[in-house]
Amino acid sequence: MKNYIFTSGTVEEANRAFTMGDAVKVSFFIRNSKLIMDEECYFFLMASMRKMRLNIPLSYTLEFFQNLFNTEVIQGKSVSNGIINFLAFRNNDGITLSKSSVSYFYEVSEVNDVLDIHQRALELDLIKEINVNTNLLSNIRVHSPENIYGSIYAEENDLDDVIFLNPNKRIARTTLGNLLFLEEDTIKIPKHTEGAYISPLLENFVTFLDKNKLATIQESELIAFESQKAEEILLISDEKGIFSVGKIRNKTFTNSGFRELVNQWKAGF
Questions:
Q1: What is the Cβ-side half-sphere exposure of residue 126, based on CA atoms within 13 angstroms?
Q2: In terms of pTM, does the model score above 0.85?
Q3: Would you say 114 and 80 are in contact if contact means Cβ atoms under 8 Å apart?
Q4: Which SS3 state, helix, strand or coil, does residue 130 take?
Q5: In whole angstroms, what is the distance from residue 54 CA to residue 90 CA?
Q6: Pick from 63, 138, 228, 262: CA 20 to 30 A from residue 36's CA?
Q7: Distance, CA of 176 to CA of 162 (rounded, Å)
Q8: What integer best gives the mean pLDDT of the chain?
Q9: Can you tell me the distance from the alpha carbon of 6 to that of 105, in angstroms, rounded to the nearest whole number?
Q10: Residue 170 pLDDT > 80, yes or no?
């Protein structure tokens, strides 16, 4: 599997994404040589840019991104299945920051099927040294030193990822994405107000389950112990894909229930 990199032009070495983390990231998805969930991803990009007070170019329409990815990625690189991680960042050319122009950089990672659960189950643990916030910018993918710290902590402790708590000691998310906790026919997910990411991939999945009455969806305030109560745990990352969680501390988890639900979701595309 290959990775491809594209930019909107020559990227200055001292761009604000590099020097200040002044950027937002949103993922788009290619499946069977077609963009899927492109409207949801596009509107999330627009919302993320507005939250960061980026000056959205008039050319940034849904049709612009559909044509861009179809021309450069699907046709240009013959990518039939992949994740597009799109980064919009502010330039230094405006009289004020809010008037500065915007450029983009995006990387495409080829995958077998973005809707597949990865074969290897992950091992997670809670991290208590730091937490993540619950403000306006906590739900979008912006520069996050917490993610960097958490990733290194996971590596040093032979973990695949860590579970972040918010200041109220409740479950927010991981460095990679959001967690879903399955108990019988109920799926609990942390609320956005708890510090969870907004995720078009997750929202499409749970909307499908709710619409087809395959599970009861509860957006909840989850204490840390919920990670030990659940029968199964799924991790959905817009940036990396879908993973089952196999172990947290001394507890192991199965994944047959989520696999069946994901397979039914896939069949709907």
A1: 17
A2: yes
A3: no
A4: coil
A5: 7
A6: 138
A7: 9
A8: 96
A9: 6
A10: yes
